[in-house]
């Protein structure tokens, strides 16, 4: 690859807002003279050889001598963070590959579904304590998969002792006996398992699909059912239907001929809708005694969708007009939820709640707890915990009856998400939040809501689910993160499971793993499909056991560690305080780098040293400290902060990483060089840039992908070709204020830009709106707040943060 010269100082920062001082000059060229030596290590290492890496010639001189004596794996290459600046790889970071035999690694679980913070498991808890890194698993168990082997069998083979499902990491002693890879018990191979349905051969149990695939789905026989599988049941529950009803009209909900549907609306009273077959039009039934909720006609409020389709369509057409003129400002959400719970009690199902204000009447009524003057306070943030246990208690009742509650908050005012969020958190639902939602004045939010709702209504769903995570003997799970209720020590109750939900668990090592080369983890999810089939999806992950600190560090997965620490910090904010959570995250970086320095490095040298695999750890921790969930000193609405916390706990790792550390790309010079070809479309692949104003240029345009939102920043002197051929405007001044859709122009530049943004969006299940911003835009400060490496009035720059870490480590 061509060798770039020394890093150039960026443009003066005064054009970009005065309070972003560029880094100290000494730092800009602080790399040792042969700059090319350092920058070359950015060449992405191909996945097939994860631990190979640059030879000694490409390491900094002091290290070259070391690595000639012993070939250091790339993951352990020593990096002085104070000197090496361009640490961000030009492409998204792939997860590390565990050091396993080739044949085991080939069939190991996909890291997008199941990954560990440490890909090499320490032999003892004391070794883990010494490494000062958290041990845990991150899961995305019901992810939409393009390939999923499904097995129908009358006998599902499981260990008789620990109930582990047979999987690729068990060992066969002979044709008739297999040894469990979690508890080591020897089990008999049942007769039926001797026959391989794929090859239609007999006598090769080790070739069956259950033993060839780390992710597999079983269609379960009757002993996996406590009751006949429930039908798909959907209850829509809203304080406003003025603009949402039309969306439901032409969408096909997942289900079969038994699918049921119902509607409840509310203000200061509760309105039910009688949809009984034979009625000429839907009947609205009003219950005004909100303190003593009863169901006016219990049998005709939840109806079979196929049989009553026309009545349902009539209702959806008339709902928006029913409440158009209402002057009602009261919201009896708590009573309305109790009513909906009673309605779903006999079957279980999914409750979708659309709420536009703070509930202020009857049970579960809330008061505003936010003081707008305290939003930017550098002190501790109050009211991160619920104001009442009403919503949690109701959620636990719902969970016990297989009801999950999904909450859509569409509001421009404070809604107390800390309290309302409990209804979804403990019932395994999800929370969607659209701050400053307005159906006319905020078209980007409306588009986002409509696309999210469409995905929500049509995506796969599992009903009455439970998930259990097992691990090899000697290890134990102690804390779970996500939306669920823990029914027994290791059983998560999930009344609904959806393909966009992530989970995390923390683990400890209870007994020494001395005589083990490998350990395994298995997640089993038992659910009812929308077609009424009972199914079990099983994922098994295998990892090596090591007994040296350097091997533990070499296997560290920096993104998984960051994701797990974020979950732990959300918990700490609620149980202790936000400042405690912030300190704990900073200490995680200090402790692990101090442990590396003291116990792994053989030659002590000055600087802030990290192994290459953790080189981005301080950057990610700083990004968390500046993230909406945890930042202080920057004006942050309480609900915005709480929603960010919800997402960190609930989003699968690939999505939450973009919310923590957004990706920045230059997009005014996209080319086909290195582009991907996807479905006949050419998708450019610009490199990822560091999040610093230094990387911006007034002559260019940059796209920032922050996970749930995208910003396209257009420089004041941006080249005219980009303005005309991508934005369809004649000059910078003509860029409209709230542009959120790129025009479909018939130019190569427009097609490339739209293909790239479309490709980024297609990689996630939710819809990130796009905001085109100029220097004068209201959203410019939000864009700049994501420039994590720069200093703000209330937060350190990346370089200052590194100096702080170094100072703490050398104490």
Automatic annotation (TrEMBL):
It is found in: Cytoplasm, Cytosol; Cytoplasmic vesicle, COPII-coated vesicle membrane; Endoplasmic reticulum membrane. Residues 156-192 form the Zinc finger Sec23/Sec24-type domain. The keyword Cytoplasm applies. InterPro entries: ADF-H/Gelsolin-like_dom_sf, Beta-sandwich_Sec23_24, Gelsolin-like_dom, Gelsolin-like_dom_sf, Sec23/24_helical_dom, Sec23/24_helical_dom_sf, Sec23/24_trunk_dom, SEC23_SEC24_subfamily. Residues 252-457 form the Sec23/Sec24 trunk domain. Keywords: Cytoplasm, Cytoplasmic vesicle, Endoplasmic reticulum, ER-Golgi transport, Membrane, Metal-binding, Protein transport, Transport, Zinc. Residues 1-12 have a biased composition (Pro residues). The keyword Nucleotidyltransferase does not apply. CDD domains: Sec24-like (cd01479). It is a peripheral membrane protein. One of its GO terms (molecular function) is SNARE binding. Residues 462-546 form the Sec23/Sec24 beta-sandwich domain. Residues 557-657 form the Sec23/Sec24 helical domain. It holds the Pfam family zf-Sec23_Sec24. Residues 683-757 form the Gelsolin-like domain. Belongs to the SEC23/SEC24 family. SEC24 subfamily. This is SEC24 homolog A, COPII coat complex component.
């Amino acid at each position: 690859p061509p060798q770039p010269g020394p890093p150039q100082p960026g443009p003066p920062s005064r054009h970009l807002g005065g309070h972003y001082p560029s880094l100290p000059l000494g730092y800009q060229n602080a790399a040792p003279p042969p700059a090319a030596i350092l920058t070359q290590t950015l060449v992405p290492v191909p996945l097939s050889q994860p631990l190979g890496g640059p030879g000694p010639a490409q390491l900094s001189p002091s290290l070259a001598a070391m690595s000639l004596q012993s070939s250091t794996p790339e993951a352990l290459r020593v990096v002085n963070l104070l000197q090496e600046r361009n640490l961000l790889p030009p492409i998204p970071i792939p997860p590390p590959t565990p050091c396993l035999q080739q044949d085991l690694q080939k069939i190991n679980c996909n890291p997008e579904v199941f990954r560990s913070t440490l890909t090499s498991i320490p032999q003892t808890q004391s070794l883990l304590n010494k490494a000062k890194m958290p041990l845990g698993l991150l899961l995305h168990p019901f992810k939409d998969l393009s390939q999923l082997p499904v097995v129908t069998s009358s006998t599902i083979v499981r260990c008789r002792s620990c109930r582990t499902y047979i999987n690729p990491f068990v060992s066969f002693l002979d044709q008739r006996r297999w040894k469990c890879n979690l508890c080591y018990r020897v089990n008999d191979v049942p007769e039926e398992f001797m026959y391989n349905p794929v090859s239609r051969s007999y006598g090769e149990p080790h070739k069956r699909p259950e033993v060839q695939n780390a992710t597999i789905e079983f269609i379960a026989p009757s002993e996996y059912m406590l009751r006949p599988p429930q039908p798909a049941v959907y209850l829509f529950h809203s304080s406003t239907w003025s603009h949402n009803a039309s969306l439901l009209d032409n969408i096909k909900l997942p289900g079969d001929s038994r699918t049921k549907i119902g509607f409840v609306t509310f203000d200061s009273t509760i309105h039910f809708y009688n949809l009984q077959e034979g009625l000429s039009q839907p009947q609205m039934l009003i219950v005004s005694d909100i303190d003593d909720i009863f169901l006016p006609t219990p049998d005709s409020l939840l109806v079979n969708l196929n049989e009553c389709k026309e009545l349902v369509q009539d209702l959806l057409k008339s709902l928006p007009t029913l409440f158009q003129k209402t002057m009602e400002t009261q919201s009896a959400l708590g009573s309305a939820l109790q009513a909906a719970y009673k309605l779903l009690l006999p079957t279980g199902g999914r409750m979708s709640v659309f709420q536009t204000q703070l509930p202020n009447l009857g049970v579960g009524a809330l008061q505003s707890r936010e003081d707008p003057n305290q939003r930017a306070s550098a002190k501790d943030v109050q009211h991160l915990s619920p104001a009442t246990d009403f919503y949690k208690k109701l959620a636990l009742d719902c969970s016990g009856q297989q009801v999950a509650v999904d909450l859509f908050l569409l509001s421009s005012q404070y809604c107390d998400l800390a309290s309302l969020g409990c209804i979804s958190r403990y019932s395994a639902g999800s929370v969607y939040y659209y701050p400053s939602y307005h159906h006319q004045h905020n078209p980007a939010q409306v588009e986002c809501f409509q696309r999210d709702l469409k995905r929500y209504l049509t995506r796969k769903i599992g009903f009455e689910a439970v998930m259990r995570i097992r691990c090899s003997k000697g290890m134990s799970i102690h804390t779970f993160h996500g939306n669920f209720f823990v029914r027994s020590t290791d059983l998560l109750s999930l009344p609904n499971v959806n393909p966009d939900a992530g989970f995390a668990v923390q683990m400890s090592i209870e007994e020494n793993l001395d005589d083990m080369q490998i350990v395994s983890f298995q997640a089993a999810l038992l659910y009812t499909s929308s077609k009424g089939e009972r199914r079990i999806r099983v994922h098994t992950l295998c990892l090596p056991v090591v007994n040296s600190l350097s091997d533990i560090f070499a296997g560290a997965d920096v993104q998984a560690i960051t994701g797990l620490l974020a979950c732990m910090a959300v918990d700490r904010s609620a149980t202790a305080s936000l400042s405690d959570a912030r300190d704990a995250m900073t200490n995680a970086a200090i402790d692990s780098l101090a442990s590396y320095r003291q116990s792994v490095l053989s030659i002590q040298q000055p600087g802030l040293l990290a192994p290459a695999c953790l080189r981005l750890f301080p950057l990610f921790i700083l990004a968390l400290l500046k993230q909406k969930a945890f930042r202080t000193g920057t004006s942050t609405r309480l609900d915005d902060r709480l929603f960010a916390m919800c997402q960190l706990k609930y989003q699968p790792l690939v999505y939450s990483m973009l919310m923590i550390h957004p990706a920045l790309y230059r997009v005014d010079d996209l080319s086909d060089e290195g582009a991907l070809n996807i479905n006949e479309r050419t998708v450019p692949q610009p490199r990822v840039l560091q999040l610093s104003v230094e990387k911006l240029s007034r002559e260019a345009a940059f796209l920032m992908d922050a996970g749930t939102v995208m910003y396209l920043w257009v420089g004041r002197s941006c080249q005219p070709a980009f303005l005309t051929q991508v934005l369809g405007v004649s000059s910078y001044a003509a860029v409209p204020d709230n542009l959120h859709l790129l025009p479909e122009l018939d130019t190569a530049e427009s097609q490339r830009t739209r293909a790239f943004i479309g490709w980024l969006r297609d990689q996630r299940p939710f819809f990130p709106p796009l905001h085109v911003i100029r220097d004068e835009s209201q959203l410019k400060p939000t864009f700049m707040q994501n420039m994590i490496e720069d200093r703000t009035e209330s937060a350190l720059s990346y370089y200052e943060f590194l100096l702080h870490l170094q100072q703490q480590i050398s104490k």
